[in-house]
Amino acid sequence: MLKLAVLGSTNGTDLQALLDAQVGHQLGEAEIVLVVSNKPAAGILDKARRVGVEAVCIEAATQTDFEHQLLNMLQRRKVDLILLIGFMRILSDEFVRQYDHKILNIHPSLLPKYAGGMNLDVHAEVLKQGDAVTGCTLHYVTEQLDGGPIYGQEEVAVLPGDTPQTLKIRVQAAEQKLLLRAVRELADKP
Fold first, then answer.
1. Are 4 and 33 in contact (CB under 8 A)?
2. Active-site residue among 25, 107, 123, 139?
3. Which of 160, 106, 147, 153 is nearest to 134 (CA)?
């Protein structure tokens, strides 16, 4: 069984798709065992709690304290893979090295385009640049921000009349599809 932890700071729209799949026994040999946020009011925590997944907020004063507490939680639960879904915090190089090739981040663009951007800012930039296609990228986290090896990408057409908000909705649907596929594939690997 592939044990997953999800780190997030936002509403948890993408997490909901994973939780629904888990409740419906459609995650294969994977299980979300822990959801962690750095924001006490993050919707991601409520979504996890509603389906009985342990959800914890770590409000640490420093990056070192946050990562120390997080590391203890991950080790106690024997987490195999960490998913960053709307996690608005950068993990230290030391933490990333401890979980080399075991942290995946979902990013709302087709990397390397708009690396380092977040949320609606990315979609606004896509529209400003006049891109015909955007999408999302699932990549391994390394010391280089949004620069790790790409696991997969999903393309999304930019439509006439799109706003950052309408584009975000369609990109999030692509993110959910990509995350579900990746979790199932990784759970099936020997």
1. yes
2. 107
3. 153
Task: Find where tokens 């908000």 sit.
Answer: 165
Residue 128, domain extent: 2-188
Cβ-proximal residues to 185 (8 Å cutoff; 6+ apart), any chain: none
Number of independent structural domains in the chain? 1
Q: Is 63 helix (H, G, I), strand (E, B) or coil?
A: helix
Identify residue 50 by its one-letter amino acid code.
R
What is residue 104's three-state secondary structure? strand
The answer to whether the beta carbons of residues 56 and 73 sit under 8 Å apart is: yes
pTM: 0.95
Distance of CA 46 to the CA centre of its chain: 16
Predicted local distance difference test score (pLDDT) of residue 168: 97
**Predicted pLDDT of residue 189:** 81
**Which whole number is the average pLDDT over 71-81?**
97
Q: Which of 136, 92, 145 is nearest to 116 (CA)?
A: 145
Q: Which two tokens stand for residue 100?
A: 């080399």
Active site residue 107: yes
The whole-chain average pLDDT of the chain stands at 96
User: Which pLDDT tens digit goes with each residue over 106-119?
Assistant: 999 999 999 999 88
CATH of the domain at 106: 3.40.50.170
